[in-house]
Amino acid sequence: MLTTKERIQTSYYSWAFEKNYRSNIKGNNRKVLKQRLMMMVDFEKKNQSHFNSKKTKREQK
């Protein structure tokens, strides 16, 4: 289960991604696409490392 803080953070990131996507959909150039992709990749990495560290701590206990 996600904590409240994590849930808020996740919803904020998805909202920011949607906002950027919709505002830039008309000028769909390579730079904007790359920016969006990097933003999502960074977010995924952050989440994975967070959840992986949690699993290892539980296993240690």
Write up what this structure looks like:
By secondary structure, this protein is mainly α. 84% of the residues lie in helices and 0% in strands. The protein has helices at residues 4-23, 30-60. The longest helix is centred in the C-terminal third of the chain and has 31 residues, at 30-60. It is elongated, with a radius of gyration of 15 Å. The protein starts with a helix and ends with a helix.
Low-confidence segments: none
Cα radius of gyration in angstroms: 15 Å
* Class from helix and strand fractions: mainly alpha
Strand content: under 5%
- Could you tell me the number of beta strands? 0
Q: In whole angstroms, how far apart are the ends? A: 18 Å
Shape: elongated
Helical content class: over 70%
Largest sheet: none
Mean pLDDT: 66
Short note summarizing the structure:
It is built from two helices and no strands. By secondary structure, it is mostly helical.
Keyphrases for this structure?
single chain, mainly alpha, 84% helix, 0% strand
Produce the secondary structure layout.
Layout: H1 4-23, H2 30-60
